[in-house]
Structure formats: C-alpha cells, structure tokens
Amino acid sequence: MSSVTSMSRGDEFIALWRERLESALRAVVGPVAGFALFVLVWQVVALRIPEIPTPGVTWRAAVELFSDPFYDNGPNDKGIGWNLLASLERVAIGFGLAALIGIPAGFAIGRYAAVRAMFSPIVSLLRPVSPLAWLPLGLLLFKAANPAAIWAIFICSIWPMIINTAVGVARVPQDYLNVARVLNLSEWKVTTQVLLPAVLPYMLTGVRLSIGTAWLVIVAAEMLTGGTGIGFWLWDEWNNLKVEHIVIAIFVIGIVGLLLESLLVALARRYTYTEE
C-alpha cells in the first residue's frame, strides 16, 4: 500500500513539474517565435529596400553605440545615454507636476458637485487637444525649449489623472460615506481613510495612462524644440542620414516605454483589490 502511495505522489510531482515546464515553454516560445518572425520580415524588407538597414547592420551599430553611451563632445554631440536621461528627466518633472495638481483636482471634482459642474466642461473641452498644440504656447510663455517641453508633458499628463481620479471618487459606495458621517469623521479623515483606499486603483490607472502619453509626447516635443533628448537625437541622426541609428532609437524608445508601463501595471496590481 505504501509503495502505491509513493508512486502516486511521484506521479503527481512529475505531472506538476511537467505542467510548469509546459507553461514556461509557452510563455517563452510565443514571444521568441514572434520576434524571430519580425526579424525575418525586417530582413526581407531590407533586402528589397536598400535604404533600410538589415538587422545585422543595426545590431553592429547598436554594439558600437552602446559601447560608450555617455560620451560628451559638446552640446550637440552627446551619447545616447545622456539624451535618454535628459528625456526621462523632463518626463519626471512634467509628470510629477501633473500628479501634484491633477490628483487633488480629481478628488475635488469627484467629491463636490459644485466643483464638478464648474470644471467638468473645461476638462472635456481641453482634454482632446493634441499635446503638441500646447507647445507653441509653452515657448511663448517660458521663452526656452526645455520648460516648453516640460509644459507639453504636464498638459498631456494631467487629464487622465483628473478624469480617472474623479471617476473613482464618484463610484465610492454611498454606504462608506454614510458610515463616515455617522462616525463624525473630519473631511481629511474621510479623504485619507475612506476615499483614498477605494480610489487608489482608479488613480493608478490614470497614472499609468499618463506616463504612456508623456513618453510618447516627449519624443515629438524634443524633435521640434531641439537641444538634448532622445527625440532630438533621433532627428539629428536623420539629418546625418544614419538610418540604423534611427532604428536603434525606435527600439530604445519602445523598451523604455514598455518598462515604464510594466512598472506602473505591477504597482496598480499591487494596490488593486476585489470586493468579496
């Protein structure tokens, strides 16, 4: 009887590891196959259009480029690492300012009907405006390219945070607020102990949408304003007819955007709860 039990347990152990191995293979094989197909299509297109660099040429250029990403030969000749850091710095400043203003504004709009009646039409009017449409106004106001680019990031990042936070506050069950009223909680305690935990998943969704939009906009803004930044570097490489560097910049922009998105998705999952 004991031998039968041990065999059963051994079979269960083997079946469990086989299931985990198959799951891991499915998780790896799919992306690898997709990327291999992408490279194959890229190679075929490059052979038909000589102006497009092949994957091999691009790889060799990337190895050379990233062998010294932080060289500095003057204002208009810096490594891709410095340009990437400059873009991330602008995104961090503009995004941070948008969070400082947008999240409290969202709470106010969702919490108070009078505030919602005043500002909802303004948000609805300005939200569809392209962020780059605000760039000339930023240049007019700040008289410099760097703060104008930060302004564009700020204005494009603020709307998702306002809207999602306001929606989250508006969807807080009335029973929660009734209990807070019975307990005679102050408005600060209602906000921090009742509203904030319930609204946090909505707020983080707005933050995630904002960071994706901000990273998209900074590239275009830097292409227009010049100076330093991954967008300016990409445009400068186009002027130098280094197409392989343009392809590398596209991959770098995509990878950084994916990392930012993944980080905020993980954060949102960490603080998202389901009501039992």
TrEMBL record:
It is found in: Cell inner membrane; Cell membrane. The keyword Cell inner membrane applies. Keywords: Cell inner membrane, Cell membrane, Ion transport, Membrane, Transmembrane, Transmembrane helix, Transport. It is a multi-pass membrane protein. GO terms for molecular function: nitrate transmembrane transporter activity. SUPFAM superfamilies: MetI-like. Residues 84-265 form the ABC transmembrane type-1 domain. PROSITE patterns: ABC_TM1 (PS50928). GO terms for cellular component: plasma membrane. InterPro entries: MetI-like (IPR000515), MetI-like_sf (IPR035906), NtrB (IPR005889). NCBIfam families: ntrB (TIGR01183). This is Nitrate ABC transporter permease. The lineage of its organism: Bacteria, Pseudomonadati, Pseudomonadota, Betaproteobacteria, Burkholderiales.
